[in-house]
Amino acid sequence: MTVTAAFADQQAAPRPGARTPTLRNYVMCPPEHFAVEYVINPWMDPDEPVDVAVAMRQWRELKETYERLGHAVSVVPAQPGLPDMVFAANSGTVVGGRVLGSRFRAEQRAAEAEHFRRWFGENGYREIVMPARINEAEGDFAWTGGLLLAGTGFRTDPEAHAEAQEALGVPVVSLRLVDARYYHLDTALFVLEQGAHPQIAYYPEAFSPGSRRVLQRLFPDAVIADAADASCLGLNGVSDGRNVVLPLEATGLAEQLRARGYEPIHVDVSELRKSGGGPKCCTMELHG
Ligand code: ARG
C-alpha cells in the first residue's frame, strides 16, 4: 500500500473503539389510552395519577430518537380500553420474517394480541403462529442474532419457550426470573450487539442461581448492571449496536457502555415507568 493509500485508509476507518450501528425496524403504539387502572406488577399503583399528555410526549420523543438515528418505526393504532397497549414489545416476536404472536397472562391485556396479529397480517407477514401457552413476546424474549434468550417465572410459561423454538426455528435458552420487580426478561437484560459475537447487559440478581451461571457461560464479557441501574428500568434499553437508548436515570450503566464504545442516549420515561415500562417495552423489533 502506498503512503497516501494508507493515510486514506486510516481516515476512513472508524475511530478506535467506536461501534457500527445497523438500521432497525421497530413497531410502536402511542399511549393515547394510557392509564394505570389495575395492578399486574409491583410498579403499578392506581392511586398515583398518570398524565396521558406527558406519556404521549415521552413516547413521541422516544419515536423521534429512533427516527433521528435512521431507524424505521411503524405505528399500530392504540385502542380504547387497552391502557397497556403502548408496551408493543409484548405483542409479538419476529425472527427471520416469522411471527410468533402473544398470549397475555392478565385478562386485562388479552385483547392486545389480536390487534397486533391483524397488523402483522395486513403488513405482509404470512407466517404467523399464535401461541397456545402464555407468551408475552419480547417482554420475555431477546434475540441475540443466534439465540433466543427466554424469560420465565412471572409471565411467560416455560412451555412457551419450546413453542417459540418450534414456531421460529431458533435455539431457545430458558432463564428464570426471581424478583417480581423484574417480571419480564426485558426489565433485567438486553442485547447490546446482535450477531455471531453478541453482547448483552444484565442485572444478575434478577435471575436464579442456575440462570446466572448460564448467562456467565454464554456471555463472560457482559456488561453487569447494579441495583441502581436496574431500579430505574435501565436494563430496558434499546441498542442498534452503537447507540443505546436508556432511561435518563441509568447513569452508571451509561458510563460502562461509553467505556466499551457505545453511545448512550437518554430518554425520559418517568410516566411510562408508572406502569412498569421503559424504552424497550414500548418497542417491538422486527428481526429479519
Ligand atoms: N403494565 C404492563 C404489564 O405489567 C407493563 C409491561 C411492560 N412491558 C415489558 N415489555 N416489560 O404488563
UniProtKB/TrEMBL annotation:
UniProt keyword terms in alphabetical order: Hydrolase
GO molecular function: amino acid binding; dimethylargininase activity
The keyword Hydrolase belongs to this UniProt entry's keyword annotation: yes
Lineage: superkingdom: Bacteria
Single biological process term from Gene Ontology: positive regulation of nitric oxide biosynthetic process
Region (Disordered): 1-20
Active site: 184 (proton donor), 281 (nucleophile)
Gene3D superfamilies according to UniProt: L-arginine/glycine Amidinotransferase, Chain A
NCBIfam families: DiMArgaseDdahMtb
Family according to the record: Belongs to the DDAH family.
Protein's name according to its UniProt entry: N-dimethylarginine dimethylaminohydrolase
Organism: Saccharopolyspora gloriosae
Organism placement in taxonomy: Bacteria, Bacillati, Actinomycetota, Actinomycetes, Pseudonocardiales
